[in-house]
Amino acid sequence: MATTFTPNYGFDLPAVSDTGWGGIRNQNMTDVDGELFAPRIGQSALAWGATTTVNLASARVFTGTNSQISTIAFSNVPATFPNGAVVPVVRLWLVLTNAGAFAITFPASVTWLKGAAPIFRASGVSIVELVTRDGGTTWYGEGTFPRARLFRDTTDQSITTATDTVVDLQTEQFDVGGCTDPATDRFTIPAGGDAGVWLLHGQVRWEANATGTRRLWIRKNGTTIVAEAAMAPTSATDHDQEISFLVNAPLASDYFELLCRQTSGGNLALRGSTVAAYTFFEGTRIA
Fold first, then answer.
1. The whole model's pTM is what?
2. Are residue 222 and residue 116 in the same domain, yes or no?
3. What is the DSSP-derived secondary structure letter of residue 116?
4. Which of 7, 77, 120, 200 is positioned for an S-S bond with 100, CB 3.0–4.6 A?
5. Based on the domain organization, do 270 and 188 belong to the same domain?
6. pLDDT tens-digit readout, 244-256
7. Do 165 and 83 sit in the same domain of this protein?
8. Does residue 244 share a domain with residue 162?
9. What pLDDT, in 10s, does the model give residues 20-46?
10. Domain extent for 69
11. Average of pLDDT values for 201-205?
12. What tens digit of pLDDT does each residue of 53-75 get?
């Protein structure tokens, strides 16, 4: 019978009854040794579309160019070894050109360990590595840290004297991971971000007035004050007040607000600005 070849690396595969089996096997063992020592990984080009299927029967490295909004799907994920004894760990890499040019949606089976999906380059190459240990039921990828900022834009907010008031933040400057909502003025820990360490930072710009005190708080879940900053202005000019808080391993859905209080004896304004530099509340996961 004629010699055939293995499907991936093309090693010689003579018929069992061929007298040349021993010599060919000896030659191929050198090739096998080389692949074990410095392995090469097969790659395949993706057919990019509204649904882009990553077919693991064809490769482990997949290349593609993001030419339209797409939803990623996985197929033929190995669930067992040939003998069926154990479930293999499977790794894959997506090498994507212009991945940020259009939105990419990953299936719910993908868990981003840092809490948010990767931020892709709109121009250039981005690489994503994913790992599964249960036949594709769950995939794990590093992703990126969630972060967001809300700010007070063009109009000022009037703060009544001697009254605890939530700072009204009208505009979302950026939100990676679904942390903020201008309708509620809250910074919320997203699902997947609860295992980390977060840094929250807020600032308000008070209207010029040198009477009384100014206080700023970060409040958790509508009840618990977790950080406080106080000051007594000494000059009648607009002045900034800042506050920061390090949050260790919060629960998913924990939310934080920025509160303020002033005792000038009358109403005072918190300044708004289109450059998001005056009154804002921001946060990021840092570990």
1. 0.82
2. no
3. B
4. 120
5. yes
6. 999 999 999 999 9
7. no
8. yes
9. 666 666 677 777 888 888 988 999 999
10. 45-141
11. 98
12. 999 999 999 999 999 999 999 99
Sign of the Cα torsion 182, 185, 187, 188 reads negative
130 & 205 share domain: no
Do 262 and 160 share a structural domain? yes
Same domain, 165 and 267: yes
Cα gap 72→107, rounded to integer Å: 6
Q: Which residue has the tokens 């036949």?
A: 135
Cα 204 to Cα 215: distance, rounded to the nearest angstrom: 10
- What's the per-residue H, E or C state across 140-203? EECCECCEEEEECCCCCEEECCCCCEECCCCEEEEEECCCEECCCCEEECCCCCCCCEEEEEEE
Structural domains of the chain, count:
3
Least confident residue range of 21-25, 86-90, 188-192: 21-25
Strand partners, 256: 187, 220
Q: With 60 as the cut, is the pLDDT of residue 277 above it?
A: yes
Q: Are strands 104-105 and 70-75 parallel, antiparallel or unpaired?
A: parallel
